Task: inverse folding
């Protein structure tokens, strides 16, 4: 009976967190647009995983475009995506772009990469 009760509590907690997730379009304005510069870590943490993946790909393209980069390193993107999501879960009050900046800064430092000024 204790095992059943424990399993029921675990199932209830798991379903409660799953129910809290919303579709990315929930955060869109009346025209269907999301302001990615204002999108928060709390919002990212509240979306479904596939929507977080979509955003990660979009942000990657955005940053590569700004840097005039034309390549994608899939493993690095996946690592950065995971780190940003973990960072966002711990820092829900900041924007995703600030989380990305913090994660990229840390990843560059770990790899000994210095930005040109």
Result:
């Amino acid at each position: 009976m204790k095992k059943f009760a424990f399993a029921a509590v675990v199932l209830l907690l798991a379903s409660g967190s799953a129910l809290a997730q919303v579709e990315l379009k929930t955060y869109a304005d009346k025209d269907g647009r999301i302001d990615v510069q204002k999108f928060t870590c709390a919002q990212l943490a509240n979306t479904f995983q596939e929507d977080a993946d979509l955003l990660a790909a979009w942000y990657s393209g955005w940053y590569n475009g700004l840097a005039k980069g034309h390549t994608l390193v899939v493993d690095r993107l996946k690592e950065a995506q995971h780190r940003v999501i973990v960072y966002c879960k711990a820092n829900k009050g900041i924007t995703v772009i600030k989380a990305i900046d913090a994660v990229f800064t840390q990843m560059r430092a770990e790899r000994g990469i210095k930005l040109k000024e």
Notes: Confidence is low (pLDDT under 50) at residues 2-18. The chain is about 65% helix and 0% strand. Residues 56 and 78 are 9 Å apart (CA to CA). Helices lie at 2-20, 41-45, 49-66, 74-90, 96-111.
